[in-house]
Structures are given as C-alpha cells and as structure tokens.
Amino acid sequence: MHGTVQPSQILIRYFIRFSPKEDSPPEFKSVDDWLKFINMEKYLDVFHAANVNSIGKVTGLQERDLREMGIKLIGHRNKMHKSIKAMKAQFFNGGLDEDEAAI
Questions:
Q1: Domain for residue 30, yes or no?
Q2: pLDDT (tens digit, 0 to 9) for every residue of the chain, 103 residues total?
C-alpha cells in the first residue's frame, strides 16, 4: 500500500496545523494587559471612557471605531488594528492566520 496515510500521520499533521504558533499573540486577560503589551498604555483612559473593558469588545473594534474613540495618530490606530486582527485570528480561527483559515 504505497500511498496510504497512517492514522498516526494524520494526528501529527492535525497537531502541527492546530497547535498554537510560537509567534501568535498571547491570550490577554484584560484590555490593560493588551494595551501594555503593544506599548499603547497611554490609551488606557480612552478605552475605559469608551466602555471597552473586555478583550471581546476589543476584538470587535474596527479602525473607524478607534478613530472615533479619539485615537488620532494613524500609526497608533494601525498598530492596534494589526494586533486586533492577530487576536481575532487566534481566538476565532484556532490560531490560523486569515489565509490558512480560508482553506
């Protein structure tokens, strides 16, 4: 049986594909932890004032929301948005990036 895949090979492929990536963002327990991790803790008050008090709410934010919250610097919004996209990929796609999740 030349082209047969053994069950152990399937399991190995599964664990490699669905195990957390080393470069994936850590799972944050709070908005404060996340902002500190991305060196944007200066916006703690902005997030608190906007009642964005959970990571679940953070992952729902779009770039436009960040701008409306008062984050004026585009570089800071871009940094936050990139981090939010990475968290979404980790939480909702089992650690797969958007291209892998589309497969």
A1: yes
A2: 455 555 555 444 444 444 444 455 568 899 999 999 999 999 999 999 999 999 999 999 999 999 999 999 999 999 999 999 998 888 666 545 555 444 4
Structure tokens at 37: 């991790």
28-57: burial string, b at 16+ Cβ within 10 Å, e else: beebeebbeebebeebeeebeebebeebee
Domain encompassing residue 65: 7-101
> CATH number for the domain including 95?
1.10.150.50
For residue 98, give Cα distances in angstroms to 6, 66, 72.
Answer: 29, 21, 27
Domain total for the chain?
A: 1
Q: Which of 46, 86, 45 is nearest to 67 (CA)?
A: 46
